[in-house]
Design goal:
The chain is about 65% helix and about 5% strand. By secondary structure, it is mainly α. Keywords: Membrane, Transmembrane, Transmembrane helix. Belongs to the L6 tetraspanin family.
Length: about 170
């Protein structure tokens, strides 16, 4: 009777779902920001300039959160890719490539060490490569967003109306 492979696949599904949940949260945050930005009735202060800065600050905070979560997903996916899949070898169920420091990624002749499940190495490489690419893209997009929003706040692209007699 062969052992159940559920723990190995459950671990991969958990990592995958954590990264997917991160993307879902970012979509919710982006939708909320778009709704608030387009809703002219929602103002934090009496002036439009204050409202724009408040929305910009929120955008920076949420983008920074996106960088942190995407970075976490990127690191965990990279570690999962380098460690390799949990599979059945001649010595039983184990992480067959744990000590190779990722060398199995470039040497496909080592993949035959995994006897079961079929094509688990290819599946592992494809899954984690997609997660790494998407997380990296999300980090880049969030970084660009932070830089743009910080330049708006720091360089003053918002017009400031100075009332006579205040200065």
């Amino acid at each position: 009777m062969k052992p159940v492979t559920a723990p190995a696949f459950l671990c991969l599904v958990i990592v995958s779902s954590m990264c997917d949940w991160n993307r879902f949260q970012m979509l919710i945050v982006a939708a909320v920001l778009l709704v608030l930005e387009n809703n002219n009735n929602c103002k934090c202060c009496q002036s439009e300039n204050c409202s724009k800065k408040y929305m910009t600050l929120l955008s920076i905070i949420f983008s920074a959160l996106g960088i942190a979560c995407s970075g976490y997903c990127l690191v965990i996916s990279a570690l999962g890719l380098v460690q390799g899949p949990y599979c059945r070898t001649l010595h039983g169920w184990e992480y067959a490539f744990e000590g190779t420091a990722g060398r199995f990624l470039t040497d496909s002749s080592l993949w035959i060490q995994c006897l079961e499940p079929a094509h688990v190495v290819e599946w592992n490489i494809i899954l984690f490569s997609i997660l790494i690419a998407l997380s990296g893209l999300q980090v880049i997009v969030c970084l660009i967003r932070v830089v743009i929003q910080l330049s708006k706040i720091l360089c003053g692209t918002y017009s400031v109306i100075i009332q006579p007699g205040i200065i």
